[in-house]
Amino acid sequence: MPPDFNGLNEINRTLGTIMGKLDALGKEIGDIRDDMKDSEDKSDVSRATVHRRLDEVVTRTGYLESDMNTVKNDMKTVKTVTDEVTRWKQAGMGALAVTGIGSSALTAIILSYWAEIVKILRGG
Fold first, then answer.
1. Which residues have C-beta within 8 Å of that of residue 110, sequence separation ≥ 6?
2. Calpha distance 21→17 (Å, rounded)
3. What is the pLDDT of residue 8?
């Protein structure tokens, strides 16, 4: 009996199709791996950027805390000076009030004795 080449051809064709599909599948898997690698690289860069910016925020927050402590200490000094100036102002207003009352009293005395003062100054 002659060999059945039709059956062998069919098997060969089927194996060729399977091999072609396996090659295509291998290429797709390779492409997926490349895409995943690219995605991982981008994610690494993104995470590094986030960490760098977070470090910057931490550094800036430290500077702000330091500056706020300086401002608080300066405000204590300013408050002390402001309180002292307020006391001076109150004392000055009190002195002005006393001076005003004294001047008013002196003016009242001069006006009530004006005629006698003029008479004394004229020699008489």
1. 117
2. 6
3. 81
